[in-house]
Design goal:
Length: about 160
């Protein structure tokens, strides 16, 4: 299978490393926990909950989704330099991130633990990981760190 031609200029190294290396590692780690440590996953935002058969089923399905997200990030984004494809992938992953935050709020609210001073290390860790990925995706989609169009034109003129 031949590599498609890039339709745009280069993607900054920070995003390339984050989306093709770090994000897939986070996905594999999350999938591992979904499959093999559901109690830990549930304890992220739910104090002392024991997973039942429904939790296990949903977490295993989520584990599969995490593997899919990681595969797409690790393989598809390395296959193409087309920024339109990268945008489609990151928007799709951003939808998952955006679903996470109200879900966490609902779980914490049900436990009267919405205020940050009531959060535990598990809560902070989960929110920090997802929050960081969300901010990086938003920065990428806003083209933060990309060269300006004028700089690219000037660079091409000097080559």
């Amino acid at each position: 299978m031949s590599r498609p031609q890039s339709s745009t200029r280069g993607i900054p190294s920070f995003y390339r490393v984050f989306f093709t290396i770090l994000d897939p590692i986070i996905c594999i780690w999350g999938a591992y926990m979904d499959f093999f440590d559901p109690r830990m996953v549930l304890s992220s935002h739910i104090i002392a909950d024991t997973p039942d058969i429904g939790h296990i089923m949903i977490l295993k399905q989520r584990g599969g989704a995490m593997l899919s997200f990681g595969f797409i990030s690790a393989v598809l984004l390395r296959y193409t330099q087309d920024i339109k494809i990268w945008h489609i992938v990151e928007i799709a992953l951003l939808l998952v991130d955006f679903a996470y935050f109200p879900a966490v709020f609902g779980a914490l609210n049900a436990q009267t633990r919405v205020l940050p001073e009531t959060w535990r290390a598990e809560d902070w860790g989960s929110l920090a990981i997802t929050g960081t990925a969300t901010l990086v995706r938003l920065a990428f989609l806003a083209r933060a760190g990309f060269a300006d169009e004028d700089e690219d034109v000037e660079a091409k003129k000097t080559q």
